[in-house]
């Protein structure tokens, strides 16, 4: 369903007149099947978010292509309503001047799919993400972090997409809220039969929700493993990275 085919991406480095470039993604190729959750794990700066932006069509690759159900995501019509995103910064993801209802309706408005029974659609979505219908009229500053992220999730699923890219989407939440949100994401994935691309540093979250993980190193795929075989990764780098992340997170959580 999602095919990333030999993509490369560089960014200009240095000042205005500099000709130096930093290659951030190098011939990245993989596929994500329908209903699959594919984790992307890698060190900071390894290019995970860049890859996420390319899948979302926010930026274009220099070389290679990303196909969604056989069509290039460069085409807005291919991705609109079909591929959504949930980012880490839930507070800045919602316009502070919009009510929860307006924020959730934004993608539907962009698709010109606003119908007369919008209130009940918003209430259904709120219910699906575990929020009371009364949240419809609240503003972002009246929400806790977990509630705001649920609103972002409601917005992401409003168009019933077939794929969602999560970029560190649960990283800023308290551990207990992270677990609730992960459960919610699992339920929604089953319900809508969606695919997830789950970018994370959190190995435990990946182990909970992902079917496979792709270990990213310096803009390239170091290794791709089914989650059940995570402890049997082959490369030295992947083993070291996973050990580091497990130790680091263990310390972080007490
Ligand atoms: N728009 C941009 N212009 C220039 N350089 C960029 C741009 N976006 C990303 N980079 C650079 O590309 C590299 C990869 O960044 P990216 O955010 O994709 O990494 P990441 O793996 O998601 O890191 P993190 O886990 O810290 O979010 C970094 O060196 C970053 O500075």
Automatic annotation (TrEMBL):
GO terms for biological process: transmembrane transport. Belongs to the ABC transporter superfamily. PANTHER family: D,D-DIPEPTIDE TRANSPORT ATP-BINDING PROTEIN DDPF-RELATED, TRANSPORT ATP-BINDING PROTEIN. Keywords: ATP-binding, Nucleotide-binding, Transport. Residues 2-243 form the ABC transporter domain. It comes from the Bacteria. SUPFAM superfamilies: P-loop containing nucleoside triphosphate hydrolases (SSF52540). It comes from Paenibacillus xylanivorans. Signal peptide: none annotated. The keyword Nucleotide-binding applies. This is Peptide ABC transporter ATP-binding protein. SMART domains: AAA. It holds the Pfam family ABC_tran. GO terms for molecular function: ATP binding; ATP hydrolysis activity. CDD domains: ABC_NikE_OppD_transporters.
């Amino acid at each position: 369903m999602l095919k990333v085919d030999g993509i490369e991406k560089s960014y200009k480095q240095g000042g205005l007149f500099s000709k130096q470039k930093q290659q951030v993604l190098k011939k990245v190729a993989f596929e994500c099947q329908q209903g699959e959750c594919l984790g992307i794990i890698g060190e900071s700066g390894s290019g995970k978010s860049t890859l996420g932006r390319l899948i979302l069509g926010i930026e274009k690759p220099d070389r290679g292509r990303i196909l969604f159900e056989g069509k290039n995501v460069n085409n807005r019509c291919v991705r609109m309503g079909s591929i959504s995103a949930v980012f880490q910064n839930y507070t800045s993801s919602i316009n502070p001047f919009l009510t929860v209802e307006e924020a959730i309706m934004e993608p539907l408005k962009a698709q010109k799919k606003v119908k007369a029974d919008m209130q009940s659609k918003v209430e259904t979505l709120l219910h699906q993400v575990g929020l009371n219908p009364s949240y419809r009229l609240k503003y972002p500053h009246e929400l806790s972090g977990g509630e705001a992220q649920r609103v972002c999730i409601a917005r992401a699923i409003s168009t019933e997409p077939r794929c969602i890219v999560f970029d560190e989407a649960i990283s800023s939440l308290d551990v207990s809220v992270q677990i609730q949100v992960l459960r919610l994401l699992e339920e929604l994935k089953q319900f809508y039969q969606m695919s997830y691309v789950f970018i994370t540093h959190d190995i435990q979250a990946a182990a909970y929700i992902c079917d496979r993980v792709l270990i990213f190193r310096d803009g390239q795929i170091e290794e791709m493993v089914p989650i059940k075989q995570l402890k049997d990764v082959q490369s030295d780098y992947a083993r070291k990275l996973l050990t580091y992340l497990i130790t680091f997170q263990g310390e972080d959580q007490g």
